[in-house]
Design goal:
Elements (H helix, E strand, L loop, with lengths): L1 E3 L3 E3 L3 H8 L5 H4 L4 E8 L2 E6 L5 E9 L3 E6 L6 E11 L2 E10 L3 H23 L2
Antiparallel strand pairs: 1-8, 2-8, 3-4, 4-5, 5-6, 6-7, 7-8
Amino acid sequence: MNLESPTVTVNKSAEDVFEFLTKVENFEQLMPESKQKFEKISDSRFLFQLKGMPELVLDQKENTSPSKVVLGAASDKLPFTLTADIIDSGDGKSTTKLTFDGQFNAMMSMMIKNPIQNFINTLSENIGKL
């Protein structure tokens, strides 16, 4: 299952957005209002829970300064990655798009597609407000 957020313009340079997204504690600011729990586990790992969803632990998997940040599920039960592609637009601005890529069976995909799409859209919108 592959889902993408709309591309958002951020009034910060690609370097600034990259620096923000590589600090896992900053993801708490990007979470939707339905966030019930957020906990920084280490400099590269955090746990979060949204209302009606199980707790998820995300790890930083890959960072390519200043253009890409990849987070992935720490558990093999729900294997997925969340990638932020950051493009510098000049004039201290950049654009960011999130891509969710998960390997789920058809039934699971049907159940989680809309909640995941809404989640990455909210993250993207909140990145645009930085």
